[in-house]
Amino acid sequence: MRRVALVTSGGDGAGINSMIEMLSRNKEIDLYGFHDGYDGILANQPIHLTQANCENHSLDGTHFLRTARSKLPYTKNGRQQIIQTLLEQDFECLVICGGSGSQIAAKQIHEEGMNTLFIPMTVDNDVIGTDYTIGYDTALNQILNIIANTQSTAANMPGRIFMIEVLGGNVGNLALESALAGGCDLAIIPEYSTDREEIAKKVQAKLAEKQSLIIICSESAYDSKNYKAGDQGVSFSIAEPIEQLTGVRVRKTVVGFYIRAGHPSNQDAIIASKFGYFTAAAILNEDFGKMIAMNNGAVTTVDYNDLDFSASTTNQDLLEIAKNLNILNS
Ligand SMILES: Nc1ncnc2c1ncn2[C@@H]1O[C@H](COP(=O)(O)OP(=O)(O)O)[C@@H](O)[C@H]1O
Ligand SMILES: O=P(O)(O)OC[C@H]1O[C@](O)(COP(=O)(O)O)[C@@H](O)[C@@H]1O
């Protein structure tokens, strides 16, 4: 039996239970999870993740394991504490599920003495080396529900500007994709100029052509570097000059954390299941130091050393379409 530890780290992502459930099915793997990310490893109360414990819960919105942000991996000393605790318990590998920050930690922990595998999980879909992250599709679907309802009220009561603010961290993928999928009029994303006056002029020009406008605004569309992940309310400051210029009140919805929870969509559940299946294979083949990824529609394993951390994670195809449609804040 291969003794394997698993943590989730950073923001939660719907579907991760499917990945864990799939991994727990493998009879050659003895799987243990720790609550609360890296801190949970030091708290050292492993939970045996057997198939019997995991089955029937893969589609739950509540994860098998709580996730968390932790100071530990930022220092070599912290990482050594994690490694030593796991080695003392004879773990052969640590599976880390998380976003772009957790990915850095996974690589460092691997290089410093503990085999790791990394599974991309974040609603932001901003992880280097993979087209897809667990949780993204469910979050998009939740946003699309909100857009659909807003479109109804926009049709019922014309003459209004609606602005829907969504999560996404430093990357505009959630805003970009939901604006395109939802047929919205503008996506304000951090990759483009967030100059308030320019945005207001663009909105004014669009309002001259349409009865109502629906704008999707990324949480990080700040015009300064002061943004911290999870800050909310940027749409209020963007709306102010729009209202002054157009004389129309902006009706705002800050979607916030509603989108991170809930039952996973089929896409999240099936991709997570595939990730679990390929993670088991990587463990049995001792193919460590890798990320399980989705690229061009296929599950792949990507060596940490092949990751280009300076690359953009914004979806370039969608960006091109949005640019051509003139629905970006540029
Ligand atoms: N540069 C880094 N070096 C080492 N560990 C990091 C780094 N960035 C993040 N981490 C670890 O990963 C955790 C999650 O990272 P964070 O960026 O908050 O979320 P996510 O992994 O979902 O992007 C952090 O709390 C920290 O424990
Ligand atoms: O829950 P917190 O700690 O406030 O974090 C909020 C951040 O988490 C996210 O929802 C997901 O981020 P990560 O998955 O990268 O951790 C971001 O969209 C948001 O900026």
Question: What labels describe this entry?
Answer:
Rossmann fold, alpha/beta, 330 residues, binds 1,6-di-O-phosphono-beta-D-fructofuranose, 4-stranded parallel beta sheet, 11 strands, 11 helices, binds adenosine-5'-diphosphate
Question: How would you summarize the topology of this molecule?
Answer:
Blueprint (H helix, E strand, L loop, with lengths): L1 E7 L7 H9 L4 E5 L3 H7 L3 E2 L2 H4 L21 H13 L4 E6 L1 H12 L4 E5 L15 H21 L4 E6 L6 H9 L4 E3 L7 H12 L5 E6 L15 H13 L3 E5 L11 H19 L5 E6 L2 E6 L12 H9 L6
Helix pairs in contact: 1-10, 2-4, 6-7, 8-9
The structure holds adenosine-5'-diphosphate and 1,6-di-O-phosphono-beta-D-fructofuranose.
Protein name: 6-phosphofructokinase
InterPro entries: ATP_PFK, ATP_PFK_prok-type, Phosphofructokinase_dom, PKF_sf
Subcellular location: Cytoplasm
Provide structural commentary.
By secondary structure, the protein is an alpha/beta fold. Helices cover 39% and strands 17% of the residues. It contains eleven helices and eleven strands. It has a seven-stranded mixed beta sheet with strand order 3-2-1-4-5-10-11, sandwiched between helices. The chain has a four-stranded parallel beta sheet with strand order 7-8-6-9, sandwiched between helices. The chain has two domains: 2-135 and 264-306, Rossmann fold, CATH 3.40.50.450; 139-260, Rossmann fold (3-Layer(aba) Sandwich). Bound molecules: adenosine-5'-diphosphate and 1,6-di-O-phosphono-beta-D-fructofuranose. Catalyzes the phosphorylation of D-fructose 6-phosphate to fructose 1,6-bisphosphate by ATP, the first committing step of glycolysis.
